[in-house]
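User: Is it possible to get a 3D structure for a protein together with its bound compound? The compound here is protoporphyrin IX containing FE. I've pasted both below.
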Amino acid sequence: MNSADQYPEFYRPFLWGSLTLSILAGFGLAAHLSSVMALGLVRGDVTIGLIRAHGHVQLLGWIGMLIIGISLYVFPRLQSKAFSNNNLIPVIFKLLLAGVVIFATAKILVPYFTGSTRFVITLVGTAGTFLETLAILLYLYLALGTFTGKPFDRSETKRLLPYFAPVFCGWLVFAVGNAAISFSAFNPVFPHSDPEWHNFLLEIFQRLIITPAIMGFGLKMLPNFLGLRAPLWPVKAVGLTYASGALIYFAAYAANIISAGNIHLIILINAAGLAFMSLGLIWYIWELDALFFRVKPERVSLKIYRSDASSLRGRFGDRGEFGRFELFIIAGFGWALIGAALELLNSVLMISGYPKYIEPVNIRHIFLAGFAAHIVFGVGTRLLPNLIKQSLYSPKLTLMSFVLLFSGTLFRILPGLTAKFGIVLPSWLFGISGTLALSALIIFTVNIVRTPYNN
Ligand code: HEM
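Assistant: Yes, that's possible. Here is the predicted structure of the complex:
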C-alpha cells in the first residue's frame, strides 16, 4: 500500500548534522587553510591532513548529507512510492555522521603521531570509511527501491533518469572506492592513499553526484521557485549528453590511472567526455533559464488580476519572506557556466594536441564553491524553512549571507586564475576567502535555526 501517510517527513538531523560538520570542519578548515596558506605557514603532512579533512567533510558531510536527507524526503513523493522501511532513515544518518567524524578526525590527527599510535589512528579512520560506505549502501537500497516496480514506467521518471542514474552510480563507486582507498593504507603493495585514485573519487563526487543531483532536483524545484517556464524542453536529451560525457570521461580516467591502452587515445577519449559533459551543462543552463531569464513566466501576466499583486515579488511570486535567495541561484549558474566554458576550452585544446589551458585544480572550486555551494545556499534558503515548518529569522540576512559567500568564493578562485596571466593578487584576498565563506554559512545557519519550531 502506497498511501501518502507512509511517506517520511524530512529528517531534521540531516540538516543540523550537515550544518554542524560544515561549520566546524568544512568551512571552518577552509578558513584556517586559506589564512595559513596566505601567510606561508604550510606544514607538509599536517596541512595535507587538514586539506583531506576539509574536502571530505565538505563533499560527504555537508553537501552529501543534505542530498541524502532531501532526496529521502523527495523520492517517495516524486515516484508516488513509499520506502520499504522508514526506520532505516535514522540509521543512515547515524552511520554517516559517525563515519565522517571518525574519518576526518583521523585524517587531522595522523600526521602528529608515529609508530603504533599512528597505525591505530589510521585503523580507526578506515573503520570510519566503512561506516560511511554502509550508510551510502543503505541509502541506495531505499532510494533505488522507489525507482523500481510499477512507477518506473512513468514518463516523468524516464525523463529524470539520465540525471539520477549517474547520481546512483556515483554514490556506489564513491562508497566502494572510498573504503578501498582507506583500506589500501594497510596494503604494502599500494602506495599510501594513492593520490590518483583519491582525485578520481573527488571528481566522481563532483561530476557524478553533486552536478547531476543539482540538475535533476533543479528541474523539479527551480521553475517553481524562480517563476521559470515549465521544463518542456528536451530534458532527456540534455541529461543524456551530460551523462554519456561523464561515462566516457571516467572510463578514460580510470584507464589512464591503470595505464591500460594507448595513452594518446585515452587522453582523446577523456577530452571528448569532458567536452560532452561541459556541453550538457551549458545546454541545461540555457534551457532551464535560471541565469539569463530569457522567457517571461505566465505568473507575470496573471499578476495584474490579483488583489495582492503589489506585495508579490515580480516573477518569483513570493512575498520576500525568503529574502533575495535567487541571487545565490543566479550566481551559482553563472559560476557553472564559467567552469563549463573553461573545461570546454581545455577539452578542445587536448583534442587538438595542446596542453590544458587552465589547470583542473584551479577549476575545481569554480564548481564546488561557485556552483554547488551557491545553489545549496539558494535552494536551502527557499526550501528548508518549508521542510522544517518554520520561517526565516530575517530575510535581510539572506542578502548578507550572499554577499559574504560570493566574495569569499571570488577571492578563493581569482588568485589561481589571474596567476595564469601573470597578475598576482595580494595574498590577503585568498587569506580571508575561507573566513568570508564561513561567516556566510554561520549567518545562513542562524537564519534557519533561530526561529522556534513545533516538533
Ligand atoms: C571559499 C571557500 C573555500 C576555501 C577558502 C577553500 C580552500 C581550500 C584549499 C586551500 C584547498 C587545498 C588546495 C586546493 O586543492 O586548491 C581546498 C581543497 C579542496 N576543497 Fe576547498 N575551499 C573552499 C570551499 C570548498 C567547498 C564549498 C567545497 C565543496 C563543496 C570544497 C571542497 C574541496 C575539495 C574536495 C578539496 C580537495 C581536497 C583533497 O585534495 O583531498 N572547498 N580547499
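The mean pLDDT is 91. The pocket of protoporphyrin IX containing FE is lined by residues 30, 33-34, 37, 51-52, 54-55, 58-59, 63, 202, 361, 365, 368-369, 372-373, 408-409, 412, 433-434, 437 (CB under 6 Å).
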